[in-house]
Amino acid sequence: MPAATRGEAVELLTREVETNLAGLDLAVVYNEYFDDRRTTEEQALADPGRLIGEIVADLRRASAGELAECWGLILPGYRRVRYDVDDDRIYYRPPRPVKSE
User: Fold this and answer.
1) Domain tally for the chain?
2) Each residue of 37-72: pLDDT tens digit?
3) Residue 91: helix, strand or coil by DSSP?
4) Which pTM does this prediction carry?
5) Is the four-CA dihedral 100, 18, 61, 7 of positive or negative sign?
6) Is residue 98 part of a domain?
7) Nearest in space to 13 (alpha carbons), one of 29, 31, 1, 27
């Protein structure tokens, strides 16, 4: 099972947020990530940089355990994500490749 340090996890998650979240997906992730703040799809489309910036700033401050907790929200195809406090690593199972016929 692959493992990531806190720094590697921050880079992986922030890259995903910065490159692949937009519109409705960005609004959904933002609303789940910040349960005390709300946004709409229209706001996400009008000012995605602000929302992405808030998520990325929070990811950069998060502990390894917190990163493991939000991993499935940002990378929903990944499974069995867990933080091992003894070796300070986040273990995860990446999505299985889709088999073509």
Assistant:
1) 1
2) 999 999 999 999 999 999 999 999 999 999 999 999
3) strand
4) 0.88
5) positive
6) no
7) 29
Element (H, E) at 4: strand 3-4
Specify burial of residue 11 (Cβ count, 10 A radius: 0-12, 13-18, 19+).
middle
The CA distances from residue 27 to 44, 63, 87, in Å, are 6, 23, 34
For residue 89, give the 3-state DSSP assignment. strand
Domain with 14 in it? 3-93
Give me the chain's average pLDDT, please.
Answer: 93
100 assigned to some structural domain: no
pLDDT at 101 > cutoff 70: no
pLDDT given at position 24: 84
The amino acid at residue 37 is R
Q: Which two tokens stand for residue 97?
A: 């490749």
Q: Report pLDDT for 9.
A: 97
Query: Is 99 within a domain?
Result: no
> Measured between alpha carbons, how far is residue 60 from residues 16, 48, 52, 95 in Å?
13, 18, 12, 24
